User: Fold this.
Amino acid sequence: MADQTLRKPSISVTPEKYQALTQQYTPKPTISKNVVRAFIVGGIICSIGQLFINFFITLGMVRVEASTAATATMIFLGALLTGLGVYDEIGKFAGAGSIVPVTGFANSIVAPAMEFRREGYVMGVGAKLFTVAGPVLVYGIATSIVVGFVYFFLH
Amino acid sequence: MFEMIIPAFIVGGTICVIGQLLMDLTKPTFTPAHVLVSFVSGGAILGALGVYEPLVKIGGAGATIPLSGFGYTLAKGAMEAVEKRGILGAFSGGVEATAVGIAAAVFFGYLMSVAFKPKG
Amino acid sequence: MNGDDITVNLKRVGNQTVVFDNPPVILSSYSVVGPKEGKGPLGKTFDKVWNDGLHGEKSWEVAESKMLQEAMQGAMNQASVQKEEIDFMLAGDLLNQIISSNFAARQMALPFIGLYGACSTMALSLAVGSMLIDGGFAEKILVGVSSHHDTAERQYRLPTEQGAQRAMSAQWTVTGAGSVLLGRSGEGPRVTSATIGRVIDFAIKDVNNMGAAMAPAVADTILNHCQDMQLKPVDYNLIASGDLGAIGLSLACELLKQSGLDTGTSFTDCGVMIYDESQDSHAGASGCGCSSVVFAGDIMQRIKAGELQKVMLVGSGALHSPTSALQGESIPGIGHAVVIEG
Assistant:
């Protein structure tokens, strides 16, 4: 905060009052619309994933294997659509509906990596692949190890 | 071929709605990266507590395609490996169970990043 | 030695304002913008519209620097002024270490003063350039300011292909470069006074609401200008902030009203003017290219046409960085005002 001996701002509104004023003037996110869109697009993406699971089962895979293969396929599609410049348009419409599925994870890998290719293949693409994927893997794997520990000591 | 589609739609859509509410109702500093991290860790914890398993049974891809499903697989893998290998399993199980997903993400991610140019 | 011993004819008035004895002339102005700006309501007022933001260059950063050079070359051509006649080049942009300006300055090979005032850079450069001329340090000064949507997004926010929703309060960084040629003498509108702003921080932390972070600084500068000059907003045909966006503009109006200054209908914002509703820019435009192209294009044309006689351009800058934002610091704002009379 500014030194009290300095000349005060000329506007006669306090920072506290200004916070309230800002809240009043800032539009709120359109939650109901966002929720409906997230539900529909998220639902569609998962349904496509289910179609792949069913398809891989007809190929003779067991359910767990089919599920893994479907996830990998969805990652491929998410990465491809990001490369084609389509996924950011879906994301603008769907919000969390296209962020939360694994396709969104793929998008968050490709988007920064693709954009930083001009900074080189190692410090650009290689490093930026993990801008978002890094934290996800760190927290995901760390949590699973803690879960494993707890499970070990409880049994 | 079309079994489980409706449950996948409903469960998947609902999980995404939770993500949307997390973003819209929290501070703007809660970015898509924060959403993804919360879902992985949340999925792993729910998986460990045995809450996520029924969701996968009911919703199929609706529960496994969202990133919480990735967390669930991590936790499930760690616990199953602890059964087989003891404490070492805690380290190996999660990554083993999700190896296909991680490798696919890195490989396809790299491929697409090199193949395409951003449109801006 | 005591300061009272020297008699200096100080051109400073009041607390923050300078009034020019020989107001510098705006000899010419030139603007280059990207496709989105070209499609906007001010599209026809720009001198050149690029069809795409990359413009055949190998990166967006190189393209932005080229755009800035084009604008500055354009301003020189319009006034038929050669490089050799220019004393200083003043330029700034949004990127780290103002690289767009640095690299443009490398190509221009003029004595170069780099300036950073975030989105306020156009008004800041005009003020500093005018001081240099009126102070007798220069005959002609070339001012250039640029920003680029794609270079700014990847530095400040998210990669452009990331599938995320922008907040309703977010502003869209303009792809554009504006340039102005200032001279000691000649024909054209004149810069008569300037008010250098103070950094005002009212503890706004939301980087998606920069208009709100800058509004207090703009209001503060307008108040000080009016007080220093003993003028009222009605004495101006146009007061254009650049660029608060829709939310920041309403907030600045409200702050001025509560501080006893009625801005009337003459107060608007470059960030509100440049895009229309259908262009999905949410709260409007931002980026120092915005006020520079709106000033070099629309405002200059209206002054020259005699439609506007007295204009105050209040550049507004959000002086944070991605690092300071991640560390939880609030966003300091600044507003610089320059007055141009036709």
Observations:
- The longest strand of chain C covers residues 25-33.
- Chain C has two domains: 12-183, 190-341.
- Residues 312 and 339 of chain C are 4 Å apart (CA to CA).
- Chain C has a mean pLDDT of 95.
